[in-house]
Amino acid sequence: MDFISILSIFVLACFVGYYVVWSVTPALHTPLMAVTNAISSVIIVGALIAAAAAGSPVAKWLGLAGVVLASVNIFGGFAVTERMLAMYKKKEKK
Asked: Some GO term, biological process aspect, for this entry: which one (predicted)?
C-alpha cells in the first residue's frame, strides 16, 4: 500500500472514532472506557513485541513511546471510570 492509502485510512478512522465516541450516552461511558482500556492493553503488548523484534534504535524508541502513551491512556481511563462510578454512589448524610 502506498502512503496516500494508509493516510486516507487513518483520517477516516479518526473521523469515525470521533463521531462514535462523542455520540455515546453517559450511561454507556463506563463500559466504553473498559473496552478502550482493553484495546490499549493490546496496543502495549504489540508495542513490546515490535520493540523487541526491531533492529534499529529508532524502532525501539517508537515502541517505548507506544508503551508509554498506551499506559497513560489506560491510567486515564481508569481514573475517569472511577470518577464516573463515584457520581452514582449515594452520599453520606451528616
From this structure: NADPH regeneration
User: At 16, which amino acid appears?
Assistant: V
84 burial via Cβ count (<10 Å: 0-12, 13-18, 19+): middle
CA atoms within 13 A on the CB side of 29: 15
Chain mean pLDDT for the chain: 78
Whether the per-residue pLDDT at 40 is higher than 70: the answer is yes
Q: Give me the number of domains the chain comprises.
A: 1
Residue 69 to residue 71: CA distance in whole angstroms: 5
Torsion from C-alpha of 24, 28, 30, 32, nearest 10 degrees: -60
| Distance, CA of 48 to chain centre | 16
Query: What is the pTM (predicted TM-score) of this model?
Result: 0.56
**Residue 71 domain-assigned (yes or no):** yes
Q: Which structural domain range is residue 56 located in?
A: 26-87
Q: Which of 88, 85, 87 is nearest to 77 (CA)?
A: 85
